[in-house]
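Re: weekly structure request thread

Next one in the queue (303 aa):
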Amino acid sequence: MRRDDVPSRRERIPTPDGDFVDLDWLDAPAAPGAPLLLVLHGLEGCWRSHYVRGLLGRARRRGWRAVALNFRSCSGEPNRLPRFYHSGDTDDLDLVVRLLADRDQAARIGAVGISLGANVLLKWLGERGDATPEPFAAAVGISTPYDLERCARVLDRGLRKLTYTASFMRSFKTKVRAKARAFPDFVDVAAVMRAHTFAVYDRVLTAPLHGFADELDYWRRSSCRPYLRAIRRPTLLISARDDPFVPPDALPEAAELSPNVVTEFTARGGHVGFWDGPPWRPRAWAEHRAIAFLSEAMAADVC
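Done, posted below.
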């Protein structure tokens, strides 16, 4: 099955503050009690991102249920409030996991977060600790930006700034202009339009819009790295040491990890790359590994 052929149906979830998040469900038959895969996309991604569709397709082939959480403003329709999503915001994930758990207490939930989505997932797991909902069985973080300050610093320099950061800034600014039409004074729009780095963007938009003192306060309070010791579910961390977004010194050390966390840090893989196999038939290794890990963890959890 090609990634573009993953069928979906949308569900809108109202949030307590009067906004919403959209879930895109794999629209395929599954046996009663089949595991449920929850996928969290990366920065400025959505359920249509190639890695999300790849994971949904793998879930379909296993007979699992699967759903992708679109962060606020990422589902193709602007969210209602004068705010967006950010790397440390775990409230919407908590709402969705509890909703899924309440619907079917017997189901086992496994989650995969990619890039920003991995930071949100891992931070949430650490925050919840022993209070993690019982049906939530296991997690995988792929290309996680464990230390947002270190990641922002490398993305704000040299070729990375001219390529990756510039692309993100164009996407951010398009959303800000659209939001300003409904909420003209929600931020200093002129200052946002002058931003060319994550440091400036997070200083003039992310921090004031979401209750942080400045960009440093945002980065330090939102990074998942300090929360990894408190994770109480089997969790796999997949990262590449040549990731252009995540420098090697941002990767956590063994002493920082809960006994429930295992790492597979590869020499190659870039950011959400990890392709293997022959050139004429490449395979998305990280997606394959994530599903295999969740399958094993959820089977052990049932036993």
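The CA atoms of residues 49 and 171 lie 15 Å apart. Residues 158-182 form the longest helix (25 residues).
Next request, please.
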